[in-house]
Specification:
The chain is mainly α. The protein folds into 2 domains: 1-106, RNA polymerase sigma factor, region 2, helix turn helix motif (Rna Polymerase Sigma Factor, Chain: A); 107-193, Arc Repressor Mutant, subunit A. The protein is built from 10 helices and no strands. Mean pLDDT is 79; it is low at 1-13 and 104-118.
């Protein structure tokens, strides 16, 4: 009987953010603070993997919270809250890509990285991080979003499909292609010149 009573408690925990969102719709500011507190880090990480800027990632996370606050009265918990949240985050990220495509990105001089970091292991790790970030950035948007939602946010294929407005088979295909492309990119990075 203890197993049966554990299931509803677990389900309640899973949907706690959806419940909070319904409270936000009723004007509960504490519920909004709880959502922000719970999701700020994961959202910043999601944006950072694509943008590689903490400042821009924080700004976009703030934009997500503003959007969900403004949409609270229309919110319907038809899927997990994380699916709803990352669907909005993805749209905001797409808009940011469009905005950035109109202006050049800041470049970092690799010599500055080497000069400020003592030790070859640390330099090697930084080079790997840079290569990985660049490889993720080079992925098509649908593949990048799918792989980041899977790895960073640990969403299921079904949840990713809902967040990206796609079929599960499309999501599986995008993730497979993203993994293959990342393997190729990183293998090229380590080949001797």
């Amino acid at each position: 009987m203890s197993d049966a009573s554990a299931t509803p408690d677990h389900d309640a925990e899973v949907d706690v953010d959806a419940e909070r969102m319904l409270r936000v719709a009723q004007g509960d500011q504490q519920a909004l603070r709880e959502i922000i507190e719970h999701w700020q880090g994961p959202l910043i990480n999601f944006f950072y993997r694509s943008l590689r800027s903490v400042e821009a990632s924080e700004d976009l996370a703030q934009t997500v919270f503003i959007r969900i606050y403004r949409a609270a009265d229309r919110y319907q918990p038809t899927a997990k809250f994380s699916t709803y949240l990352f669907h909005i985050a993805r749209r905001i990220l797409i808009n940011e890509y469009r905005r950035q495509s109109r202006k050049p990105l800041d470049a970092v001089d690799p010599a500055e990285l080497h000069a400020s970091t003592p030790g070859t292991d640390k330099i090697r790790m930084m080079e790997l991080e840079e290569a990985f970030a660049q490889a993720v950035e080079n992925l098509p948007e649908n593949q990048r979003s799918a792989i980041l939602l899977l790895k960073q946010q640990q969403l299921s294929y079904e949840e990713i499909a809902k967040a990206l407005d796609a079929s599960e088979s499309a999501v599986k295909s995008w993730i497979h292609r993203a993994r293959q492309k990342l393997k190729e990119e990183l293998a090229d990075f380590y080949q001797p010149e």
